[in-house]
């Protein structure tokens, strides 16, 4: 599950249990999954932006070399 969500799920899930009423535990679990997905999406978004930037720089460099 940790690798799927991409964050420290086990630690967060332990905080959800601990004698809380079942309804509260379920809400906590839903919130944990939501937070982990948002965290993963932010990280993937940064990686995509970095890859695009590298591609643009590479293409610019190729155009400069071609123009000389």
What does this structure look like?
The chain is mostly helical. It is rod-shaped. It contains 3 helices and no strands. 85% of the residues lie in helices and 0% in strands. It has one domain (2-67).
E-strand count: 0
Q: How many domains, in number, for the residues?
A: 1
Poorly predicted runs are none
Give a short account of the largest sheet: none
Assembly level? single chain
Determine the structural class based on helices, strands and strand pairing.
Answer: mainly alpha
Helix content: over 70%
pLDDT averaged over residues: 78
Q: Radius of gyration, rounded? A: 21 Å
By DSSP (H or I, 4+ residues per run), the number of helices equals 3
Beta-strand content bin: under 5%
Report the principal-axis shape: rod-shaped
Distance between the termini: 53 Å
Order of helices and strands: HHH
């Amino acid at each position: 599950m940790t690798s799927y969500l991409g964050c420290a799920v086990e630690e967060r899930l332990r905080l959800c249990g601990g004698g809380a009423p079942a309804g509260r535990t379920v809400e906590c679990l839903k919130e944990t999954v939501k937070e982990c997905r948002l965290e993963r999406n932010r990280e993937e978004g940064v990686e995509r932006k970095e890859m695009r930037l590298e591609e643009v720089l590479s293409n610019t460099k190729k155009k400069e070399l071609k123009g000389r």
